[in-house]
Design goal:
Layout: H1 11-19, E1 24-28, H2 32-41, E2 45-48, H3 52-55, H4 67-80, E3 85-89, H5 99-113, E4 117-119, H6 127-135, E5 140-145, H7 165-179, E6 183-187, H8 191-200, E7 205-208, E8 216-219, H9 221-224, H10 242-258
Parallel strand pairs: 1-2, 1-8, 2-3, 3-4, 4-5, 5-6, 6-7, 7-8
3-methyl-2-oxobutanoic acid binds next to strand 6.
Length: 271
Amino acid sequence: MTNLAPKKVRTSSLAELKAAGKKFSCLTSYDSLTAGIFDEAGIDVLLVGDSAADNALGYSTTLPITVDEIIPFARAVAGAAKRSLVVVDLPFGSYETGADDALRNSIQIIKQSGAAAVKLEGGAERVPQIEAIVSAGIPVMGHLGFTPQSVHSLGGFKVQGRGEKAAQLMQDALALEKAGAFAIVLELVPMDIAGEISAALTIPTIGIGAGPKTDGQILVWTDFAGLSGHKPRKFVKQYAQMRKLLAEAAVSYKNEVENSVFPDEATSFAD
Ligand code: KIV
């Protein structure tokens, strides 16, 4: 089935897909090679997530990555993506301090990367930041539920919005929509709550560990491709086994070099 997205995916394209009852797909990307592959495959949104911190820079959480560190990843992805909408995470510490910092850092990211939009984590308390960024002409994606930048105060990777907390999650989602966010990521949220929030909003929701009732889905690319070293979480589906494939290739290469099988005549130059 074809979707309604035009050649270049815009924030408005996602709203049109939602209005038409069509789902859309998103993946993270941190480099030009994967961005080009995912773009050609028709993935609608490429998120240069702050998950680059643990997936590309070797940090153990998303917290240490800075604005200056995320920009080269964003530039690589934005440069390779011909069709996909490219969204960049505002790193921890770049927006919580107020609307001015949020705006200044968003402008720097958009100016220096060529991406189209930014994403930030948090609920109604982020309304001033979202309003400031949106009023400068930069689209903002929200992020509710489990927000990885608050991993320490949330007590680890836990499902959010269960029981009485569902009402707060709904209020936050409505506040973000009112402030001008064009979409909201819902991470680790019970599927029925995610469904209710998706139905209450005009803007699209994008689920990760939030079940099938959101408007779009996102996965961290190293998880979906089976490249991460850690055991996949319950909500992750691995669509490839890249870690195994690369490990086998590396062992074959090592063995061929050590046994003088590679290089051979076919891969060498004559006089
Ligand atoms: O940084 C990231 O990868 C994200 C996704 C989990 C949505 O924010």
